[in-house]
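U., I forgot to send this yesterday:
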Amino acid sequence: MNPLIWISIVATIGLLAAIVLAGTYNSFVRLKNQCNNAFAQIEVQLKRRYDLIPNLVECVKGYMTHERECLVQVISARNQAAASLREAAEQPQDPTALQKWLGAEGALAGALGKLSVVMENYPDLKANAAVADLSEQLTSTENRIAYARQSYNDWATGFNDYRETFPACVVAAMLGFHHNRKLIEFDDRERIANAPTVALV
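Result:
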């Protein structure tokens, strides 16, 4: 067989392989960027919640003079969750950073739940319009967080599915995509499903 034919066959195979490799890489990049964008939407909503919590604590602390420890726990858990979120946002593909943040979110949900129970013992709070407004904003924000988290999990599942299917699974590590994306699931799903609202009625 003519050497030019062999060269042409090898060049064609090489070109096809390069096209497949480039297409696979571009698909990974698009999926990675969608995951990062979805995570950024969670971050926006969580920052909103983190901003609301100190306002709520400030409103209720005048009424809850004997519950200082509970209020300190809420603010401490809020600060820890905010710090963990910053770390996770810098590296959303790192499962360890995400797990640390999810643990901090679980602690914050527990502290908010405890605050909600304690607030029930203060009937005057029910008449406070500022507290009622902040409680409503927290509930609304929790719903937005749940929606953003679902969107992230959908994109992360798409990324993981693509990474595990052929031909992407053959070249994923070579292209720098070594790990699947961790889905965002809280440790105490049942408690999180019932958002840590601060209901006053």
